[in-house]
Each structure stands twice: as structure tokens, then as C-alpha cells.
């Protein structure tokens, strides 16, 4: 995979993770979040960092899946791409004059 594709996946995922982080911790205090009825046991900064990386990984996986499913773009300028644009797939048949 090329560096451009990796950056095209990682950068939007980073921005989405930042937005999710702001939304989540703008509404909820990390020290008040509970795990099995007990505080998470991490400092506020450590908890926010861990959640950020979880968000970043999830967004990157989503972006990578999108890149994988869209496939490569057709090469512009090849004979096959010109032929499909300029010529119809099945030329019309002349009418039968029997």
C-alpha cells in the first residue's frame, strides 16, 4: 500500500477520532466513568489517551475498509477505457430484410 493511501486513511481517521474525543469528554467526565461499578483506575489523561487510540483505530479500520471495497480506479487513457467511452458495447444490428 502506498504512502498516499496510508495517509489518506490515517489523517481523516485522526480528525474523526479528535471529534469523537471532544464530543465524548465534553459531555462526560472520565473520572466518573465506571467499569463494573468501580472507577476505571486510570488517571484522567491516561483514560482519555486510551479512548482516543480506540477511536482512531476504529475510524482507521472503517476508512481502510472503504478503500478496500472501492477497488482501484480505471487507468485513464488506456485503449479499453477509450473504447468503452467512445464505442457502444454492442453495435446495433441492421434490420433483417428477408
Low-confidence runs: none
Compute the average pLDDT: 80
* N→C terminal distance: 59 Å
Mass-distribution shape: elongated
How much is the radius of gyration in Å?
26 Å
Q: Count of DSSP helices?
A: 3
Give the biggest beta sheet. Answer: 2 strands, antiparallel
Task: Please provide the count of β strands.
Answer: 2
Q: What's the order of the H and E elements?
A: HEEHH
| Major sheet strand order | 1-2
Helix residue percentage = 55-70%
**Strand fraction band?**
under 5%
Structural class: mainly alpha
Q: Would you mind describing this structure in some detail?
A:
The chain has helices at 3-27, 44-70, 79-86; strands spanning 34-35, 38-39. It is mainly alpha-helical. Helix 1 (3-27) crosses helix 2. The chain is elongated. The model has no long low-confidence stretch (mean pLDDT 80).
Amino acid at each position: 500500500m502506498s504512502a498516499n493511501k496510508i495517509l489518506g486513511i490515517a489523517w481523516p481517521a485522526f480528525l474523526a477520532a479528535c471529534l469523537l474525543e471532544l464530543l465524548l469528554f465534553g459531555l462526560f467526565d472520565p473520572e466518573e466513568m465506571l467499569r463494573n461499578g468501580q472507577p476505571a483506575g486510570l488517571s484522567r489523561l491516561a483514560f482519555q489517551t486510551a479512548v482516543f487510540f480506540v477511536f482512531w483505530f476504529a475510524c482507521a479500520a472503517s476508512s481502510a475498509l472503504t478503500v478496500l471495497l472501492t477497488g482501484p480506479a480505471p487507468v485513464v487513457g488506456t485503449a479499453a477505457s477509450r473504447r468503452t467511452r467512445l464505442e457502444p458495447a454492442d453495435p446495433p444490428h441492421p434490420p433483417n430484410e428477408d
